[in-house]
Design brief:
heterodimer; A: alpha+beta; Jelly Rolls; 3 domains; 5-stranded antiparallel β-sheet; 45% helix; 21% strand; globular; B: Jelly Rolls; Arc Repressor Mutant, subunit A; 7-stranded antiparallel β-sheet
């Protein structure tokens, strides 16, 4: 048997744009929903084919995720005392596990600071592991489900995850040892399968399924127009739902109405454009009007309130800020959260 | 492509002409130096207009029949009477196609008018509310929720302010698209509101009489008709017409006729050449035989002597 050693890396982010691109195995688009300076830390540990991620974020946010069609796995909150998050309109407490099938997508939002972890495997390994250890498939392609595992098994998974993180932070050399790495991989996979094997899935209601269909169409429309401001009427037309229905779905899945969400999305699109634009040839007015903001005074005030920075300061910030923050791995031990 | 513009008028006739999507005839009813500022926005689907005026008046409005209109007051002020119905500050009038009606205002007044093609209104209604929005067969007074009205007012007022001060922003494609969508959304939300009055059946019957009254006035364009002659034309007793005029115009028919003639004289005086025509000639043409009394009444309403209006042209 060939043993490979685990590789770990930790990153720290001051910006959701660079944070979302660093999350592995899924395309994530994230909007922070309150004002404040964003801060997040992300750790990857690759145990051969098993990928573990652990993240800490300081602000509530809503994110749309699209899991890679080649990988599937689980996501859970790591701290018992943190407030529940919502995934696809379902409340996710720290006692629950979200099973994310390969190719699935949805919204996940937090109401406060959040700590979460994910374990992912290539689909064929996931399927083989399930069949070998539990006797059946563990995940279903393109679907997101919620399970409440036996608390003792859940606790074991949480403990193992924390131990792997500590090892990566404090003595990365030990973790890099093939024997240790391999043991961790097997223990983590066992713990994961144990949690999923005796799942008692919550049966989704037909209303929930209908809303999920609508919200998925909603995200598809947005994704197809990723650089363009979108407005309610065209979205209602494309999704085939009235404003009232869309509002119910958005409240359920995004924690806010569609108008507010579309506005937040435009604000983040503007922000990205401002940071990436060349201040010598572009003005804030051009970028703001290009994203449909026609009351510039009001725009500047809301921008400052949301991002704690004036739009012109964002424009004059060097674009490479986004990359440098992301490229600099560092341990969690000396981080803001430690 | 979005078009926007703004213009200030001191001549009611020019102001009437500035409202492109409707035919308006204005009768000023109180003393004051008339000033009106019109600001308009023409988007791909929606057209919007804001008017700020300062003098009490009665307007007889004929809306262009190819579009669906809605109007509302933009600044809470003195009550406004539309087709005999006193409008509360948050009321929105959903007009019928090609509607003709009297609009009376007192003093300073800001109002907005928005329109969409019927098929666009139906489409936006369908998409946003799930059911078609069609223009009513007779105008309706809607009372939307206060936040819905506040939102429509705010967007329309800000949009006009931008059109007046920074029109280049509205010329920007994406900004115009967002603004139009925000306006349409706010408008459609207001148009789905409930009626403010249970039934306007009696008002509608009276409104019919008032339309016949205006038609009769137009038919008599050359000679100024008397109230009994008009009643005979319309086919209603004098008492009925009296009641309708008080309800719709806030005054008796004879007073309205006189004010109307005075406004006509003023329009002619403004354009007349003082070297070839006299005040007396014009006044007589509109059946003011007692010149001294005419001049006094004229001054009471318009704040200046008729001769001053006539001379004004040669000065400017």
């Amino acid at each position: 048997m060939v043993l490979s050693m685990a590789r770990s890396a930790a990153f720290s982010f001051e910006d959701p744009i660079s944070y979302q691109t660093a999350i592995r195995g899924a395309a994530v688009e994230m909007f922070v929903t309150v004002k404040g300076s964003f801060h997040a830390e992300l750790m990857h540990i690759q145990f051969d084919k098993l990928c573990m991620q652990y993240a800490r974020e300081n602000l509530p946010r809503v994110a749309h995720f699209a899991i890679s069609p080649k990988r599937g796995g689980i996501v859970f909150l790591t701290d018992a005392n943190q407030p529940a998050a919502q995934c696809c309109g379902m409340d996710v407490s720290s006692e629950a596990i979200v099973i994310v099938g390969a190719g699935s997508s949805g919204h996940v939002r937090s109401c406060d600071a959040c700590r979460w972890a994910g374990l992912a495997l290539p689909v064929e390994d996931l399927s083989a592991t399930g069949n070998a250890l539990a006797g059946h498939e563990l995940t279903e392609a393109s679907s997101t489900r919620l399970v409440y595992p036996n608390p003792a098994r859940m606790a074991r998974l949480v403990r193992l995850r924390a131990a792997a993180q500590r090892l990566a932070e404090v003595t990365p050399d030990t973790l890099a040892h093939p024997e240790v790495s391999n043991t961790f991989k097997h223990e983590l996979m066992h713990a994961m399968v144990a949690c999923l094997a005796d799942e008692a899935p919550a049966k989704p209601t037909s209303g929930w399924r209908h809303h999920t269909v609508i919200i998925n169409r909603f995200e598809k429309v947005l994704a197809a127009n990723s650089d363009r401001p979108m407005h309610l009427a065209e979205i209602c037309a494309a999704v085939g739902a009235s404003e009232r229905t869309l509002e119910i779905c958005c409240e359920e899945h995004l924690g806010m109405g569609p108008i507010r969400y579309l506005w937040l999305r435009r604000m983040h699109l503007v922000r990205r454009s401002l940071i990436q634009a060349d201040p010598s040839s572009t003005t804030v007015t051009q970028i703001a009007t290009g994203h449909g903001f026609w009351e510039l005074g009001r725009f500047a005030v809301s921008y400052k309130e949301l991002f704690e920075e004036s739009p012109s300061a964002a424009l004059h910030r060097p674009a490479r800020d986004l990359r440098t923050i992301q490229d600099r791995p560092r341990g969690f031990a000396d981080s803001k959260f430690a | 492509m979005t078009e926007s513009g703004t213009a200030t008028f001191s001549d009611p006739d020019e102001c009437q002409a500035g409202i492109g999507s409707a035919t308006v005839s204005l009768v000023l009813t109180s003393r004051g130096d008339f000033k009106a500022r019109l600001t308009w926005l023409k988007f791909r689907h929606l057209q919007a207009l804001r008017c700020r005026e300062n003098v009490s008046r009665i307007a007889f409005v004929s809306l262009f029949p190819g579009r669906v209109f809605a109007s509302l007051s933009l600044k809470p002020g003195a009550p406004m009477i539309w087709s005999g119905v006193e409008l509360r500050p948050g009321d929105l009038v959903f007009h019928s196609l090609g509607e003709r009606a009297h609009y009376c205002t007192k003093g300073l007044h800001h109002w907005g008018l928005m329109s969409l093609a019927p098929e666009q209104l139906a489409a936006y209604g369908k998409v946003l509310t799930g059911s078609k929005l069609t223009p009513p067969s007779a105008g309706r007074v809607l009372r939307p929720s206060p936040p819905a009205v506040a939102s429509l007012r705010r967007i329309l007022s800000s949009a006009c302010r931008v059109a007046e001060t920074k029109p280049e922003i509205i010329a920007h494609l994406e900004a115009a698209r967002t603004l139009e969508q925000e306006l349409i959304h706010a408008l459609v939300t207001c148009l789905t509101a409930n009626d403010a009055h249970r039934s306007l059946a009696t008002k509608r019957h009276h409104a019919e009489i008032m339309l016949r009254f205006e038609d009769a006035l137009v038919a008599h364009v050359d000679r100024q008709p008397s109230v009994p002659a008009l009643c005979a034309d319309i086919g209603v007793p004098e008492r009925t017409l009296q009641g309708c005029c008080v309800e719709f115009l806030g005054m008796s028919p004879s007073r309205y006729l006189r004010l109307r003639r005075l406004n006509m004289v003023r329009a002619v005086l403004r354009r007349a050449d003082p070297t070839t025509v006299s005040v007396a000639e014009i006044a007589r043409r509109y059946q003011f035989s007692d010149l001294g009394r005419f001049a006094a009444v004229y001054r009471e309403i318009f704040g200046e002597m008729p001769s001053a209006t006539l001379r004004h042209r040669s000065l400017s």
